[in-house]
Structure formats: structure tokens, C-alpha cells
Amino acid sequence: xxxxxxxxxxxxxxxxxxxxxxxxxWFSSVLLMPTGSPAAxxxxxxxxxxxxxxxxxxxxxxxxVYDGWPSKEHASFSGxxxxxxxxxxxxxSSETFLDGLT
Length: 102
Known about the structure:
The chain is of the alpha+beta class. It has a single domain, classed as Double Stranded RNA Binding Domain. 36% of the residues lie in helices and 30% in strands.
């Protein structure tokens, strides 16, 4: 992993995302949605994953929308983004979701 000074860096995030996809057979994409104003910018994280070899792509996707950054919980952009990926990975791993794919 990358060098954690005050939390994860973008290298850690990319490694996590690649491993999540590889281990679960997912194809994930990330959308950063800027909100707020020039004086108080904000970004919302959207992560979408679909099964790489799913016969029915409409039934194989899951989306996580995360509040984003800046936030009270995260000092850094990369820390907030990493937390979003952890929550998304948890959702991908949930048996409730996976039962709906079969």
C-alpha cells in the first residue's frame, strides 16, 4: 500500500478499487459530482459496479452515493473517498444483494 501519513492516499484508493473488482468479478466506475459554490466547494462520490460477466446487466449493478468532501468525518479528500469505497465494497459483499443476482 501507499505511504499512510495522515490516512490513505490515491495510490491506496486505486489499489483498493482494483482489488475489489478483481476479487469480486466487478467492473466499477467512479463519478465525482461537484456541488456547492466557488466559495464553499463540495464533491459527492458516486461509485457504480456491475458484474463483469453478467448475462443481464440491468440486474447486476449497484450504486453507492456517498456524502463526499469536505466533511466533519474526514480531514482529507482521499480519506473520504477511501471510506466511500469501503462502504461500497461492503454493499457489494452483502448476501442480500448477491441473492438478487442469481
